[in-house]
Amino acid sequence: MPFETSEPTTTQHTENSSYREKLVEHLFVAELLKLSWLHHDCSLEIAKPEVDNSGYDLIVEANGVVRHVQLKTSIVGGKTAVQKIHTKLAEKPSGCVVWIYIDEKNLRLGPFLYFGSEAGKPLPSLVNRKVAKHTKGDKDGVKAERPNIRILPKGSFTPIESIENLYVRLFSKA
């Protein structure tokens, strides 16, 4: 029986954000694995942390480069101007943030935004970045600071147009 097709709505993207987050993660991993299969001798390894308390979603390794990757997503054309980054990501070797834009109609990935250094180098310093606050206030309406979370504006990220270019950025040694 053929699938009925209907375009997802923006409401679907917000009401099912956890589902979308996992879907985008799987699509991203699949694209990286596909590139490894086609061009890099199946050398890519991927692991997931059991506990998410250091700010990364994936550990990826290829060409002797280990990356701890925090994933962020936005809809193409969306207005998100900042991302919240965990400071512990800076303690990981070659930690980085990949901000994935997704087409809400067909779920194609890209373009991408990248925050990190070249392979083998630590994440750029987060020391002077603005400290994030909780989204909800306490009983008095005060929004407490989140000392381990920093706010990065979109301009801090490097635009990368394709998954192929991102793969090179992640795993090429300078």
Can you walk me through this structure?
- The chain has 174 residues and is of the alpha+beta class.
- It has a single domain (10-171), classed as Trna Endonuclease, Chain: A, domain 1.
- The protein has helices spanning 10-15, 17-39, 163-171, and strands at residues 45-47, 58-62, 65-75, 82-86, 96-102, 109-116, 130-133, 145-153, 158-160.
- A hairpin with a 6-residue loop joins strand 5 and strand 6.
Beta-strand residue fraction: 25-35%
Question: What is the CATH domain class?
Answer: Alpha Beta
How many individual domains?
Answer: 1
Our count of helices gives 3
Order of helices and strands: HHEEEEEEEEEH
What is the first-to-last residue Cα distance? 51 Å
Strand order of the largest sheet: 1-2-3-5-6-9
CATH topology: Trna Endonuclease, Chain: A, domain 1
Radius of gyration: 17 Å
Average per-residue pLDDT, rounded, comes to 90
Strand count:
9
Structural class: alpha+beta
Task: State the helicity in percent bands.
Answer: 10-25%
Shape by Cα distribution: globular
Question: What is the correct CATH architecture?
Answer: 3-Layer(aba) Sandwich
